[in-house]
Write a structure and sequence with these properties.
The chain has helices at residues 14-23, 28-44, 48-63, 65-68, 74-90, 110-116, 129-141, 181-194, 224-233, and strands spanning 99-102, 122-126, 150-153, 167-172, 195-207, 213-215, 219-222, 236-240, 252-258. The protein is built from 9 helices and 9 strands. Helix 8 (181-194) packs across helix 9 (224-233). Strand 1, helix 6 and strand 2 form a beta-alpha-beta unit. By secondary structure, it is an alpha/beta fold.
Length: 278
């Protein structure tokens, strides 16, 4: 199957930025504001987690929680959440699965999972206290209190407070797209401990097939091979999920399993799963 990279050019290069500004003059001022914020946060935060926590705080204050996680309308928020949910259902998700939602945000996907899963089977974590307050509002809005969802604030991706081999599905949508390689490395180094032997870890990422780069330490672009090789370093088998491309989402998807996993489980990939939920 021929794959066309979503990002064919180096977006942080001056030539690209100048050409983009000429084509989209209305976006110049917002970009300059973002550039100024980036410079200030680099000086006032100690690491990427505290940096991006400050980004989220500013975005929530300015635009609201939906826009802060990348949905600029309620319709988009619902559509993207449904797309993620439909994909997991097509790949065998059951109410008995135990799901860890990394970067759960204000539960764009999470509220559907909470409603579908058995009580206590949803665990959402995020680095932003403000977005977790919005997540609690979402639980109340949809009347999901009796499903006993867990929502927790974290400072890293070591999963130190979570049990061994517990989660049958781990999910991270639009997390690695905002993460430098050391944060991804930390996640892959530790996720195997909490992942059930027959479980899987799905994550999305901004894909490039040329030079890897970032834009203002907020948007990161990786080659598939980089992330597959990094997972292998920690005894994990990673697979590019080609069927996700049918959903026409701007990010690509990789599924990670324990390398020793014998084969598909009840929540394994359905190679020919139909696309939907756009």
């Amino acid at each position: 199957m021929t794959r066309t990279p979503y990002v064919a050019r180096h977006r942080s290069r001056l030539g690209y930025r100048l050409a983009y500004a000429l084509r989209h003059p209305g976006k110049v001022w917002p970009y300059l504001r973002r550039l100024t914020r980036d410079a200030r946060l680099r000086l006032t935060t100690r690491d990427h987690i505290s940096y991006y926590r400050a980004v989220m705080r500013a975005d929530i204050k300015e635009m609201g929680p939906d826009a802060a996680i990348g949905s600029h309308s309620r319709r988009s928020w619902l559509r993207v959440g449904k797309m993620q949910f439909d994909y997991l259902i097509a790949h065998g998700l059951t109410p008995q699965d135990r799901v860890l939602d990394i970067g759960c945000g204000n539960l764009r996907l999470g509220w559907r999972l909470i409603h579908y899963l058995e009580p206590g089977h949803y665990y959402g974590i995020d680095i932003s206290p403000e977005i977790l307050l919005a997540a609690a509002d979402t639980v109340a809005w949809y009347g999901l209190q009796a499903k006993l969802p867990y929502l927790a604030l974290v400072d890293d991706l070591t999963f130190a407070a979570l049990p061994d081999a517990y989660f049958t599905v781990v999910h991270a949508h639009s997390v690695f797209s905002h993460s430098p390689i050391e944060v991804i490395d930390e996640c892959l180094r530790h996720v195997g401990r909490i992942l059930h032997p027959d479980g899987f870890f799905d994550f999305t990422f901004d894909r490039t097939e040329k030079e890897e780069h970032h834009v203002l330490r907020e948007d990161f672009y990786y080659r598939t091979e980089t992330l597959v090789e990094l997972a292998a370093r920690y005894g994990l088998r990673a697979e590019f999920m080609a069927d996700w491309e049918r959903y026409r989402h701007k990010q690509s998807r990789i599924r990670v399993r324990h390398a020793r996993a014998a084969g598909p489980s009840a929540v394994a990939r359905a190679a020919d799963a139909p696309a939907g939920g756009r």
